[in-house]
Design brief:
The structure holds 4 protein chains of 4 kinds. By secondary structure, chain A is mainly alpha-helical. Chain A is built from 6 helices and no strands. Chain B folds into 2 domains: 2-73 and 89-118, Helix Hairpins; 127-292, Cupredoxins -  blue copper proteins (Immunoglobulin-like). Helices cover 37% and strands 20% of the residues of chain B. Chain B has 6 helices and 11 strands. Chain B has a 6-stranded mixed β-sheet. In chain B, strands 4-10-9-6-7 form a 5-stranded mixed β-sheet. Chain C is globular. The longest helix of chain C is centred in the first third of the chain and has 35 residues, at 95-129. Chain C is mostly helical. Chain C has 2 domains: 1-41; 42-585 and 629-641, Cytochrome c oxidase-like, subunit I domain (Cytochrome C Oxidase, Chain A), CATH 1.20.210. The chains are: A mainly alpha, B alpha+beta, C mainly alpha, D mainly alpha. At the B-C interface, helix 1, helix 2, helix 3, strand 7 and strand 8 of B face helix 5, helix 11, helix 12, helix 13 and helix 14 of C. The structure holds heme-A (2 copies), dinuclear copper ion (CUA) and copper (II) ion. The site of one heme-A has 33 residues of chain C, from helix 4, helix 5, helix 16 and helix 18.
Chain lengths: 202, 309, 651, 119
C-alpha cells in the first residue's frame, strides 16, 4: 500500500491512512445501500394496494407498536452516538456501557419486529399472501436482517475491544459499525413514514 | 499501408450499399414498405432518421479517413504538420457539441409528434368507428375476439381495409407482443392488463403477424395470418363464421388454453363471456387450470410447424 | 435406485450429443489439469502464487484469463446459433436448446466476459497509472475476483447439471417465474449473477477509494490518465446501479423459492416490475462496459498518434454526463409496454441526448489524430476500427431511441445489430486493444504483430459481414430469439453466418498468438514499450510486486512523458525506504468456495446445504474480522536487488 | 474540541430531541390531524427527510475530515438515484390510461399514492 501518511492528532480512527480509507469506503457502501433500499421502496410503492384476498394494511398496522419500535431505534441511534463520543474521549468503559445499551435496544426492536410478523401471519398476512405483503415483508425484513447483522457484528467488535483495547484499528471498526447503526435508523425513518404512516392513512 | 485503403474502401462501401438497397425500394424490407397509415408514419420517421444518420456517418467517416491518411507516419513526411502539444480548440469543441444538440432536437420533434399520433386511431379513417378486436395470447397461440360480431378466431385474423382496428391486447400467461410489420409497430400483451393498439390496412392482402416477444419454446411458431379485405368481403366472412362455426364453450376454451401449438379455428361466440384476461380477475385464470402443464418444454424441430398454413 | 433415477433424469442433463460431448470434455480437461498439476508438483505453487494472492496484477491477469475463456464459451454459443440460423428448416438445434444457448450467450458475454475483461485491465493498470502499490483494499479485491470466478462457475455448471436457463439474458417474468419455468435452470441465472454481482459492487467501491485516496503526490484529479478517469466513473455507476440488480435478482429468487408474489401472475404480482428493475440496472450496465473501453481507446490513440489527448477536460466531463444520463433512460427498453405518450416522449429525448457527449468523444479522438504522426501497431488498429464501427452502432441506437419508430424495431434483428455494433466494436475491440497494448507490461513480451494483424482483419471484416446485414433483417421483419428462419431471410442470414466464421478465425488466431508470442517473441528489456505517456510505463517490465521502488512526485498531466523529458525514474536510489505490503490470504478463496456450496444448495432448493454453506461464509467473515495481520515490509536491500536485476537491460 | 470533555455532547442531545419531536409530529399528522391525504403524505415525507439529515450530520458526522465533501456528494448522488428509482418506477409502472392496474377497489388510493410519492 502506498505511503502510510499517518497523523498523530484527531480521532484515533482517522489517524492511519488505512483507517481513513476504510471509513470512506464504508460511506460509499452506504451510498449503495441507499440504492438497495430505494429499490425495495420502489417495489413496495408500485405493489401498494395489490393485497389480493389478504387483509389490507390499514386493518393490521397499529400505531402504538410502531411508535415503540421507532423510539427504540431512535434512542439506540442516540446511545450509539454517545458510545462513539466516549470512544473519542478515550473511555473504553463508557464505550462498553453505551454500546451495550445500544445493542439491548436493538434487540428490543428485533423482538417487537418478530412479534409483529408472527401476529400478521396469524391474521392471514404473510410473505406468500399477495404482492403487497411480499413487498412489505421483504422491505421490513431486509431492514430487520440488517439490524441483526449490525448487532452480531458489534458483538464481534466488542470482543476485539476486550482483547486489544482502543487502537486505531479497533476504534475504526467501532466507528464504522456506528455509521451502519445510524444508517439503519435513517432507513427505518423512511419505513416508518412511507410504510406505516401512509399505510394507516390511505 | 495498403491495408488502410482497403479498410477505407470497405467502410465507405457499407453505407453506400445500404443506401442502394433503400432507394431500390427493396421489396423484402416489409417495414419500409408499409400497407397502412400507421406503418406509413413510422416509415416516414425512419427514413427521416436514416437520412440524418447517414449525414453524420458521412461526416465522421470523411474526417476519419482524412486523419489516418494525412497524418500517418510515413517516410519523408513534412515535419511541420506534426504538433505533439496541440491539445484543444474551444470553438471546435463548442461546434461539435451544439450541432449534435440541434440534430437531437430535430429528431425529437417528429418523434414526439408521432408518439402521440399513434396513441389515437389513424386520422385517415376518422369517419368510421374503429373495429374492436380483442387479441389475447396464450402460450403459443392467438385468440382474436370480435365482441360486436360475436365471433372468435384462433391463429388468424380477418380485417376490413380502410378502417382502423382497435386491438385490445392482453395475455393469459407469458408476455407477448402483437406485431404485424406490414401494418405498423407492436405493443405488448400482458396478463391482467389491457393495452390498446391501433392499426389499419389500406391495401387488401395477406400479411404476416406474430408475437415478437420471446416467450419460450413455441415462440417461433407463435404467428398468425392477417387477411385484409374490403368491407363487403369482410362482412360476408363474418356471416359465414357466424353461421357455420360452432360455439366456443368454456370447456373447449379451457382446453385450448393449455400450453402448446394450435391449428386455425373459428367460433360463433367469444371467450369474453367467461373471462377477460386483461382484467385483474382474469389474470390467473389459465394458471389455475394448467399449472402443471408447463413442466415439459416443447422440443420443436426447425422448420415451419403449426403456425404455417 | 430412486437416487440414480434422479441423477439421470433431473440432475445431469441427458439426451443431447452436444452435452455428452461437453461433459466428457469437462471431465477430461479436469483430469488433465489435476494430472499436470500433480505431476509437476504445482499444487503448492498454484495455491501460494495465485489462489491466495492479493496482488492486483495477478488478480487482473486471472480476470483476463477467465474472461478469455468465457469469450470462447460465449463465442461457441454464438457459432451454434449462427449455424442453426443459416438456412430455413435447419434441424441442428431444437427450439429448447436454441433458447438455452442465446440465453447463456448473452448472459456470459455481458456479465462473465465483458465486465471481467475490463475489470481485469483496470486491476492491472489503474494502480500503476496513479503510482500506487496496490488497490485500497487488496483483500476485498481478491474476494471480488473469487466471487466472480465462482459465480461464473455456477452459471456454467447449469449446462451439464440441471439444465441451462432459457428465458433470455433479460429473463422477463412471468415466463422466468416458477410457474411457467419450473426447475433449477432459472435459479442458476439468478444465483450465478447474484454471487458475481456482489463482487462487482465491491470492486466498484474499491476503485473509487483507490483513485481518490492512493494517488501519488501531485497527481491531481485533473492530471489522472484518462483510463483511470473512465475507471473512476465506471465504478460510480457500478456502486449505484448494482444494488438494483441485487434486489431484482433477490426478489425473483424469493418468488421462485419461497413463494412470494412480486412478479407472478397470481397474488396480484406485477411481472413488468421485473423489466423495470432489470433495465434500471441494465441500461447503466451497458455504459459500465463501454466507458472503460473509451478510456482504453483514448490512451492508445494518444500514444500512437504521438500527441496529447485532444480536449482532456471535455473527455472527462462527457463521461460524467454519460454516467448521469445513464440512470434516466432505462424505459427505452420497453417503449412498447404502452406507458403512454408522456413517458415515451420523455425517455426518447433523454436517450437521444446521450448522443451529444458521445459525439464529443468521437470528435475528440479525431482531433487527437489531427497533426499527429500515426503508427499502425495492432492496438492502434483496433482503436481505429472502433471509431467508424461504433458510430454505426451509436447512430442506430439513436434510431431505436425514437420511440415511435422503435415500435417497429423492437425485438428484431435491427436491435441485435445495434447492440453487437456497440458491444463488439466498443467493448470487445477495446478489450483486444487494451490487452495487446498492455501485454508487454503484463507478460514481458509483445504479442506478435503479424499474427495480430491477421487476427484483426479477420475479426473486423467478419464482424461487419456478420452484423451489418442484420439491420436489414430487422427491416425485413425477422424477430430476435427465433430458432428458425423463413426462406425470405435466407440470403442475409447466410452472409451473417459467414461473417461469424471469419470472426471465429480471427479469435482463434488471437489465441494462437498468445501461445506463439509466449514461445517466440523477443523479451522486453525496457519498461516503456510504446513510448508511452502515463505512469504504468515508468515501472520496469516485468513489474515488481511493489510496483514502484520510489513513488515519483507528479508535476502535471501525462506524468511519465514529463518524467522522460526531465530524465526522472521511479527508482531513485537514495530515496528507497522499506515498503509496506499486504499479506496474501486464503480466506477469499475459501469463503467463496463456501458461497459456491450455498448457492448450489439454493439452486436445487436443498435448503440444508444452502444453510451449511452460508454458515461457512459467515465463519470466514468472523475469521477475517479477528485477523489483525498488518502485512509486511519489503527491505531496502531487497528492493535494490530487485530493481538492479530488472533494470539490467536499460542503460 | 470542547465538546469532547462533556459526558453527553449537546449536538447529540439536540439531534435526539429533534428526531423525537419530528417523529411525534409525523405520527400526529398521519392519524391525529384531519388534513387532506395528499397534504399528510407530503408533510410526513418532508419530516422524514429532515430527520434523515439530522442523523447524517449530527450523529454520523458526514462532513468530518477531508473526505467530508466526497462523503456528502456520495450520499447526495445516492439520494438522486433513489428519487429516480422510486419516482421513476411509480411513474412508468402506473402507466395511466389503458391499463387495468389491478388492486380492485384500492385503485383510487393507489393513484393518489402515485401522485404524491414523487418527491
Ligand atoms: C456497449 C453497450 C451499448 C451502448 C454503448 C449503447 C448505446 C446506445 N444505445 Fe443501446 N443497447 C445495448 C447496448 C448498448 N447500447 C444492448 C445490449 C441493448 C439490447 C438489450 C436487449 O434487449 O437484449 C440495447 C438496446 C437499446 C435500445 C432498446 C431498443 C429496443 O429494445 O427496442 C435503445 C433504444 O433507445 C438503445 C439506444 C442506445 C443509444 C441511443 C445509445 C447511445 O449511447 C449511442 C451514442 C453514440 C452515438 C450516437 C454515435 C457517436 C455520436 C456522434 C458521431 C455525434 C452525432 C450523433 C448524433 C447527433 C445522433 N439501445
Ligand atoms: C459483449 C457481448 C457480446 C458479444 C461479444 C457477442 C458476440 C457474438 N454474438 Fe451475440 N449477443 C449478445 C452479446 C454479445 N454477443 C447479447 C446480450 C445477446 C442477446 C441475448 C438474448 O437475446 O438474451 C446476443 C444475441 C445474439 C444473437 C441473437 C440471438 C437471437 O436473438 O436469436 C446472435 C445471432 O446471430 C448473436 C451472434 C453473435 C456472434 C456471431 C458473435 C461473435 O462476435 C462471436 C465471435 C466468435 C467467437 C469469439 C468464437 C470463438 C470460437 C472459436 C474460435 C472456436 C471454434 C470452435 C468450435 C466451434 C468448437 N448474438
Ligand atoms: Cu456519532 Cu454514532
Ligand atoms: Cu439501454
Amino acid at each position: 500500500m502506498s505511503a502510510h501518511t499517518d497523523i498523530s492528532t484527531g480521532p484515533l480512527e482517522y489517524r492511519t491512512q488505512e483507517g481513513r480509507m476504510n471509513i470512506l469506503g464504508f460511506w460509499i457502501f452506504l451510498g449503495a445501500e441507499v440504492v438497495l433500499f430505494s429499490t425495495l421502496f420502489a417495489t413496495y410503492a408500485v405493489l401498494f394496494g395489490r393485497t389480493a384476498d389478504a387483509p389490507v394494511p390499514a386493518d393490521l398496522f397499529e400505531m402504538p407498536m410502531v411508535l415503540i419500535m421507532t423510539f427504540l431505534l431512535l434512542t439506540s441511534s442516540f446511545t450509539c452516538g454517545i458510545a462513539i463520543h466516549h470512544m473519542r474521549r478515550g473511555s473504553l468503559k463508557g464505550l462498553f456501557v453505551w454500546l451495550g445499551i445500544t445493542l439491548a435496544l436493538g434487540l428490543g426492536f428485533l423482538g417487537f419486529e418478530i412479534y409483529e410478523f408472527v401476529h400478521y401471519a396469524h391474521e392471514g398476512a404473510s410473505l406468500p399472501s399477495s404482492a403487497f405483503w411480499s413487498a412489505f415483508f421483504v422491505l421490513t425484513g431486509t431492514h430487520g436482517l440488517h439490524v441483526l447483522l449490525g448487532i452480531s457484528w458489534a458483538v464481534l467488535i466488542l470482543i476485539q475491544l476486550r482483547q486489544r483495547g482502543l487502537t486505531p484499528v479497533t476504534s475504526r471498526k467501532v466507528f464504522i459499525v456506528g455509521l451502519y447503526w445510524h444508517f439503519l435508523d435513517v432507513i427505518w425513518i423512511f419505513i416508518f413514514t412511507s410504510v406505516y404512516l401512509i399505510g394507516m392513512v390511505v | 499501408m495498403k491495408n488502410i485503403y482497403l479498410r477505407v474502401k470497405l467502410w465507405a462501401a457499407l453505407p453506400a450499399l445500404s443506401l442502394l438497397l433503400l432507394v431500390s425500394g427493396c421489396g423484402e424490407l416489409t417495414v419500409l414498405d408499409p400497407k397502412g397509415p400507421v406503418g406509413e408514419s413510422q416509415k416516414d420517421l425512419i427514413i427521416f432518421s436514416i437520412i440524418l444518420m447517414l449525414i453524420i456517418v458521412a461526416v465522421v467517416f470523411i474526417a476519419f479517413t482524412y486523419m489516418i491518411v494525412k497524418y500517418r507516419d510515413r517516410p519523408g513526411r513534412d515535419e511541420k504538420d506534426y504538433d505533439p502539444d496541440h491539445h484543444g480548440n474551444t470553438t471546435l469543441e463548442i461546434v461539435w457539441t451544439v450541432i449534435p444538440l440541434i440534430i437531437v432536437t430535430a429528431l425529437s420533434i417528429p418523434t414526439v409528434i408521432t408518439i402521440y399520433e399513434l396513441e389515437e386511431a389513424p386520422e385517415a379513417s376518422s369517419d368510421k368507428e374503429p373495429l374492436v378486436v380483442y387479441a389475447t395470447t396464450a402460450d403459443w397461440k392467438w385468440f382474436f375476439s370480435y365482441p360486436e360480431e360475436n365471433i372468435e378466431t384462433v391463429n388468424y385474423l380477418h380485417i376490413p381495409t380502410d378502417r382502423a382496428i382497435e386491438f385490445r391486447l392482453s395475455s393469459a400467461d407469458s408476455m407477448a407482443s402483437l406485431w404485424i410489420p406490414a401494418l405498423g409497430g407492436q405493443k405488448y400483451n400482458m396478463a391482467g392488463m389491457e393495452n390498446t393498439l391501433y392499426l389499419q390496412a389500406d391495401e387488401e392482402g395477406t400479411y404476416e403477424g406474430r408475437n415478437s416477444n420471446y416467450n419460450g419454446s413455441g415462440f417461433a411458431e407463435h404467428t398468425f395470418e392477417v387477411h385484409a379485405e374490403n368491407e363487403e368481403d369482410f362482412e360476408s366472412w363474418v356471416e359465414k363464421v357466424k353461421n357455420t362455426a360452432p360455439e366456443l364453450t368454456q370447456e373447449e376454451y379451457d382446453s385450448l388454453l393449455a400450453p402448446g401449438l394450435e391449428e386455425e379455428l373459428e367460433f360463433s361466440s367469444t371467450h369474453l363471456d367467461y373471462v377477460d384476461h386483461g382484467t385483474n380477475e382474469g389474470r390467473d385464470y389459465l394458471i389455475e387450470r394448467h399449472k402443471d402443464a408447463f413442466e415439459e418444454p416443447l422440443h420443436l424441430k426447425g422448420g415451419r410447424g403449426a403456425g404455417d398454413e | 435406485m430412486e437416487f440414480i433415477d434422479f441423477l439421470l433424469e433431473d440432475f445431469f442433463v441427458t439426451g443431447q450429443p452436444l452435452i455428452y460431448g461437453a461433459m466428457v470434455s469437462i471431465v477430461l480437461v479436469s483430469i488433465a489439469i489435476v494430472f499436470v498439476l500433480s505431476y509437476f508438483k504445482k499444487w503448492g505453487w498454484l495455491w501460494r502464487e495465485w489462489l491466495t494472492t492479493v496482488d492486483h496484477k495477478k488478480i487482473g491477469i486471472m480476470y483476463i484469463i477467465a474472461a478469455l475463456a468465457m469469450l470462447f464459451r460465449g463465442g461457441v454459443d454464438a457459432l451454434l446459433m449462427r449455424t442453426q440460423l443459416t438456412l430455413p428448416g435447419m434441424e441442428f438445434l431444437d427450439s429448447q436448446h436454441y433458447n438455452e444457448i442465446f440465453t447463456t450467450h448473452g448472459t456470459i458475454m455481458i456479465i462473465f466476459m465483458a465486465m471481467p475483461f475490463l475489470i481485469g485491465l483496470m486491476n492491472y493498470i489503474v494502480p500503476l497509472q496513479i503510482g500506487a502499490r496496490d488497490v485500497a483494499f487488496p483483500f476485498l479485491n481478491a474476494l471480488s475476483f473469487w466471487s466472480f470466478a465462482f459465480g461464473a462457475m455456477i452459471f456454467n455448471l447449469s449446462f451439464v447439471i440441471g439444465g441451462s436457463p432459457d428465458a433470455g439474458w433479460t429473463s422477463y417474468t412471468p415466463m422466468a417465474g416458477a410457474t411457467l419455468n419450473p426447475g433449477p435452470a432459472q435459479n442458476y441465472y439468478l444465483i450465478g449473477l447474484q454471487v458475481s454481482g456482489i463482487g462487482t459492487l465491491a470492486t466498484g467501491i474499491n476503485f473509487i477509494v483507490t483513485i481518490l485516496k492512493m494517488r501519488a503526490p501531485g497527481m491531481k484529479m485533473m492530471r489522472l490518465p484518462i483510463f483511470t478517469w473512465s475507471t473512476f466513473i465506471t465504478s460510480i455507476i457500478i456502486v449505484f446501479a448494482f444494488p438494483i440488480l441485487t434486489v431484482a435478482l433477490a426478489l425473483m429468487t424469493i418468488d421462485r423459492i419461497f413463494g412470494s408474489h412480486f412478479f407472478t401472475l397470481t397474488g396480484e404480482g406485477m411481472p413488468m416490475m421485473w423489466a423495470n428493475l432489470f433495465w434500471l440496472w441494465g441500461h447503466p450496465e451497458v455504459y459500465i462496459v463501454i466507458l472503460p473501453a473509451f478510456g482504453i481507446f483514448s490512451e492508445i490513440i494518444s500514444t500512437f498518434a504521438r500527441k496529447q489527448l485532444f480536449g482532456y477536460k471535455a473527455m472527462v466531463y462527457s463521461m460524467v454526463v454519460i454516467a448521469g444520463l445513464s440512470f434516466v433512460v432505462w424505459v427505452h427498453h420497453f417503449f412498447t409496454m404502452g406507458a403512454g405518450g408522456a413517458v415515451n416522449s420523455f425517455f426518447s429525448i433523454t436517450t437521444m441526448l446521450i448522443a451529444v457527449p458521445t459525439g464529443v468523444k468521437i470528435f475528440n479522438w479525431l482531433g487527437t489524430m489531427y497533426k499527429g504522426r500515426i503508427r499502425f501497431d495492432t492496438p492502434m488498429l483496433w482503436s481505429l476500427a472502433f471509431i467508424p464501427c461504433f458510430v454505426i452502432g451509436g447512430v442506430t441506437g439513436v434510431m431505436l431511441a425514437m420511440a415511435a419508430a422503435d415500435y417497429q424495431y423492437h425485438n428484431t434483428y435491427f436491435l441485435v445489430a445495434h447492440f453487437h455494433y456497440v458491444l463488439i466494436a466498443g467493448t470487445v475491440f477495446g478489450c483486444f486493444a487494451g490487452l495487446t497494448y498492455w501485454y508487454p507490461k503484463m507478460f514481458g513480451h509483445k504479442m506478435n504483430e503479424k499474427l495480430g494483424k491477421i487476427s484483426f482483419w479477420f475479426f473486423v471484416i467478419g464482424f461487419n459481414v456478420c452484423f451489418f446485414p442484420m439491420y436489414f433483417l430487422g427491416f425485413a421483419g425477422m424477430p430476435r430469439r427465433t430458432y428458425t428462419i423463413e426462406p425470405e431471410w435466407m440470403a442475409l442470414n447466410v452472409t451473417a453466418s459467414i461473417g461469424a466464421i471469419l470472426m471465429a478465425i480471427g479469435f482463434a488466431v488471437f489465441v494462437y498468438n498468445i501461445y506463439y508470442s509466449f514461445r517466440y517473441s523477443q523479451r522486453e528489456t525496457h519498461g516503456d514499450t510504446w513510448d508511452g505517456r502515463a505512469l504504468e510505463w515508468a515501472t520496469t517490465t516485468p513489474v515488481p510486486f511493489y510496483n514502484f521502488a520510489t513513488v515519483p512526485k507528479i508535476e502535471g498531466p501525462e506524468a511519465y512523458w514529463r518524467m522522460k523529458e526531465n530524465g526522472r525514474t521511479t527508482y531513485e536510489k537514495e530515496k528507497v525506504e522499506p515498503i509496506h505490503m499486504p499479506s496474501d490470504s486464503g480466506v477469499p478463496f475459501v469463503m467463496m468456495a463456501f458461497m459456491f456450496i450455498a448457492s448450489f444448495g439454493l439452486i436445487w432448493e436443498w435448503i440444508g446445504i444452502a444453510i451449511a454453506g452460508l454458515i461457512g461464509v459467515l465463519a470466514c467473515m468472523v475469521i477475517r474480522s479477528f485477523d489483525y495481520d498488518d502485512g509486511f515490509y519489503v527491505s531496502v536491500e531487497e528492493i535494490k536487488q530487485t530493481e538492479k536485476k530488472a533494470r539490467e537491460g536499460e542503460q | 474540541m470542547s465538546e469532547l470533555t462533556k459526558r453527553i455532547p449537546k449536538q447529540h442531545v439536540v439531534g435526539f430531541v429533534g428526531s423525537i419531536i419530528l417523529t411525534v409530529a409525523a405520527a400526529w399528522a398521519a392519524v391525529g390531524s384531519d388534513l387532506p391525504t395528499p397534504w399528510i403524505i407530503t408533510s410526513i415525507m418532508v419530516l422524514a427527510v429532515i430527520q434523515a439529515f439530522i442523523q447524517l450530520f449530527m450523529f454520523m458526522h458526514m462532513t468530518e475530515t477531508e473526505s467530508g465533501g466526497i462523503q456528502a456528494g456520495n450520499m447526495l448522488y445516492g439520494f438522486f438515484v433513489a428519487v429516480v428509482i422510486v419516482a421513476g418506477s411509480i411513474w412508468t409502472m402506473s402507466f395511466g390510461y389503458t391499463h387495468d392496474h389491478g388492486g380492485g377497489s384500492d385503485n383510487d388510493n393507489e393513484t393518489e399514492e402515485h401522485e404524491h410519492m414523487d418527491h
